Fold this protein.
Amino acid sequence: MKDSENLVVPAPVLPTLPIVGTDRRFPVRRIYCIGRNYVAHVREMGGDETRDFPLIFQKPLDAIVQDGGVVPYPPKTNNFHFELELMVAMKSGGYNIPEGDALSHVFGYGICLDMTRRTLLDTPDGPRIPWELKKAFDHSAPCGPIHPVEQVGHPTSGRIRLEVDGEARQDSDLSLLIWRVPEIIATLSNYYSLEPGDIIMTGTPDGVGPVMPGNVMVGSIDGLGTLTITVGEQAVAGAPVPHRLSA
Ligand code: MN
């Protein structure tokens, strides 16, 4: 009997993302995220223009929600924020990737949302609050389909825009990224071996704000289509929230 047939609970289903123009799918291995990567967003969060070392964190794989899906309002917050971001999907990697080689490891690009519990109930805010609780929770990583590099190249500029119920909330341009994609890949690879299937959320522009159950978020980036996500009701106490992973 193989180890994979000898399990005492069901094995988790690894998430995959659709690839535009084909019925093949992209298997996700890890979700890396970069924070504070547009000056106007750094400022609205109370900081100042900076080229300080980028803020790096991860989200759990089963936080992925597919395009068209529902994100239940999470527990322990009344300040649940959207952050629309450019997503990079890796086809290869390794440690210590030179910046000049970084783009050769990219499979494609897409649109994602870094859903955030901006403030937490019953937990005092401050530097000691675990970042994990604000960023790495269930359903916190809606991800759209991936556009292969062969179709879209390596976008370095273009409008990035989020509407909530038809009203513009974020409206910026990819050219305003502080840490650009090759720098992000090179820096991450100094600390982690990047591998096929890794995706990177590259940070959000300004205009972040709260959503409530029933709101519909539509994100778009020039050349990368749209991502549509609905905010659902908060999970009933004691009931597991259904996962929305594709097989
Ligand atoms: Mn973010």
In short: The chain has one domain: 3-232.
